[in-house]
What does this fold into?
Amino acid sequence: ETLKKAIELGPDQIEAYGLLAGLLRYRLSRAKEANQWMDKLVKTNPKSPKAHTLRGHHLRSMEANDEAFMEALQALELAPDDRDALRLAAQCALAKKQLDTARGYAMRGVRVHPTDVEMYGVLSEIEMRDGNKDEAIDTLERGLKATDRSPQLLERMAEVLIEIRQLDQAQKVIQELQA
It folds into this structure.
């Protein structure tokens, strides 16, 4: 009820919609009502990239990738370099196995947000799914350099190295993570 009142008092309080939808869906098992609040979010805030991205993440969590992708595109129309919208677009395209499209959004995200750890992770995942193991590793190396050896990217690097059976290299990365 507190979140509903917060939304009624300030319909532009975008985070409150997300909190309410999460509470309804995950804690109270009321997914339909959560969806209604997310619909209301974008109807009330049609010019907010954050609103469209938040609804997109909600839809993606329900495996509604087509609709989530449309929300990401709407957010990108409003803010072409929005970090979350670029990442969401890349993730949705990847889920739909549209690897070139996914790669385009992720590469743009890395170019515009060169220290975004998650963007490098998404781009490396795209490259791995497309069979470009060397490019996946290069992407992670660029990300590690740009993010001062992010533990999240080190972990992803270890996973990739294990997957491609470069176990000695993976062990070195794991040791760095443990240091």
Summary: The CA atoms of residues 25 and 32 lie 8 Å apart. The chain has a mean pLDDT of 90. Residues 14-27 form the longest helix (14 residues).
